[in-house]
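pasting for ref
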Amino acid sequence: MKGICVQSEIGPLKKVLLHRPGRELLKLTPKRLGELLFDDIPYLKDAQREHDAFAAILRENGVEVVYLEDLMSEVLAAHTELVRPFLYQWLAEGNIKTGKWRDRLCDYLLENYSGKALVEKTMEGIALKEMGGASACSLQDLIAPADDVIVDPMPNLYFTRDPFASVGRGVFVNRMRFPTRRRETIYADYILKYHPDFAGRVTRYSERDGFAPLEGGDLLNLTADTIAIGISERSSPDGIEAAARRLFADPTAEIRTVLAFSIPVARAFMHLDTVLTQLDRDKYLVHPAILGPLTVYEIRPGAEDLRIEHVDAPLAQILEKYTHTEKVELIPCGGEDMIASAREQWNDGSNTLALAPGRVVVYERNDVTNAILRERGIDVIEMPSAELSRGRGGPRCMSMPLIRE
């Protein structure tokens, strides 16, 4: 299965991209959690066990699982001439400003790592002590502590949903909102350009150096011709307008309607998929706190540019209209218990991954919501989540569908 084909949130999942959490989590420290977009420090060994259980669930349900680190390793193995340019780009975007330091760090990496280990090392980052401490190349290095991090880690990489987003047979390579995540899209850029599964097969609707932020967790494929994008903490209105223009300008794209969902800007609501995910053809899981403040706009091609109109209707009616469904059921995360709702929303109770219509993967810790889903006829598959949930992302956040039926 090659290329990308995703036209819904619930079509049987056939191929998915993951990243197994690695040593990048070991470079998280309490004083830098906010900067690196974490609220706590996951225990790596358990996080890996939980992630392996997630991948096993996917495979048991007929899904081909591919890993970001493997695809990137395959690109560099097949195109050895790209190794140095990739490393220099990674160093430059990792805030290594001087040519002398870039040369030394590149040589260090090439002398000590190769293949998949080299790719994983770029994800982990580099500490000054690995380079001999203060025997270094600048005044800053002479005064810095030996355990100072020279090139930052990328601990958010296991949330593969965000750096790029599959739409139809194309993809958005996103400009991430926060600087700490922007280097993540380097891997997607190389994979889409050079990996034989994607090179020449996938239309790109945006580039990683775009002017406005857009992240994959805000994009939902509602139907073959309609997508929803959240106006959120991470995706801006001008980013959504740019996305709509690129889609509408492509004669091969089927998308003709973009629904912009304006959600509250809050850590718990960072993306649209943290407050709304589709479970079945007529069922959605929603965080009840967004139903009041939610505002929706319809974006369609206009005579000269975009035609943008406010959609004045309740969420259920909006989903019924644009998905051509007679009646839609909104299932509240946590049910009617607002304490349970707030608690389970914090632990991504609304962030489900559909394997097929009515069959979803969820975090086991959200037992109130999971029980409600079973009562409503949803086939619920629970995965362990004590450590992975510390990154504030659920099963949908941790997966990028590449092919759905």
